[in-house]
Design goal:
This protein is an alpha/beta fold. 43% of the residues lie in helices and 16% in strands. It has an 8-stranded parallel β-sheet with strand order 7-6-5-4-3-2-1-8. β1 (37-41), α3 (47-55) and β2 form a beta-alpha-beta unit.
């Protein structure tokens, strides 16, 4: 697949449609559209598609897997890369080299490993604590009641900067059915910021099927793949 196969014009068209929907969601909730960033998730697409995203005006790109990100990060060092998928500790060293942002911090041991690797590479990492708001067994993230303990641990580390929280809502045909998930995360973030005395400006929540509801509930980072690039290739 090439840029032409996806179509730069199509990506631009899709991005404009996303921005219009974001603006409408912000208007409904009294927010400034500039307060929401689109993270274009290029999982499953080749580097040429990530290049098309950058050419279309996107600067924040997301990947789920360290191994899949290598070629794309090398091809597009000017982009800001976000790791949005689960990270195993044995991939921490490479993740620190590739990603300035990690959305999926879900344990103290992983935080300590990222901090150690960041120290070795003289880097500072922006991190979000992943919270499993809905308690789904197949999803990663800490339960809401454990988020403060992990946040406190992160704040003690020299090379990590805690920026906020992330969640993945359950799949549902009606986005209104997961509004409570996003509202819960926002309330939790506000409570943690107050209890910790630390600003936590970022809420990474909302994907293609539910990002408008997430924005209405306070999302600052929305992770979009299909809305921008269509269905991922198979085979």
């Amino acid at each position: 697949m090439t840029v032409g196969a996806i179509g730069l014009d199509l990506v631009r068209h899709n991005l404009e449609a996303v921005r219009l929907r974001l603006a409408a969601a912000c208007a409904r909730s009294g927010r400034d559209p500039a307060s929401v960033r689109v993270v274009a998730v290029t999982k499953g697409f080749p580097a040429e598609v990530a290049m098309a995203a950058v050419r279309a005006g996107l600067r924040d790109l997301g990947e789920n897997y360290v191994q899949e990100a290598r070629e794309k990060v090398r091809a597009l060092p000017e982009a800001t890369w976000h790791l949005v998928g689960h990270l195993q500790r044995n991939k921490a060293r490479e993740a620190v080299r590739l990603f300035p942002w990690v959305h999926s911090l879900d344990s103290e041991s992983l935080a300590e490993e990222l901090d150690r690797r960041a120290e070795q590479h003289d880097r500072v990492l922006q991190v979000l604590v992943q919270v499993n708001v809905a308690g789904e067994a197949q999803k990663h993230g800490v339960p809401p009641e454990e988020a403060i303990r992990l946040a406190q641990a992160v704040l003690r580390l020299r090379r990590l900067r805690l920026r906020g929280l992330m969640t993945i809502a359950p799949l549902t045909p009606d986005p209104e059915g997961v509004r409570w998930v996003f509202r819960t995360l926002r309330t939790l973030r506000d409570d943690l910021a107050h209890r910790l005395g630390a600003p936590l400006p970022e809420l990474s929540m909302g994907m293609t099927d539910d990002f408008e509801v997430a924005v209405e509930e306070g999302a600052t980072l929305v992770r979009l793949g299909r809305a921008l690039f269509g269905e991922r290739p198979t085979g």
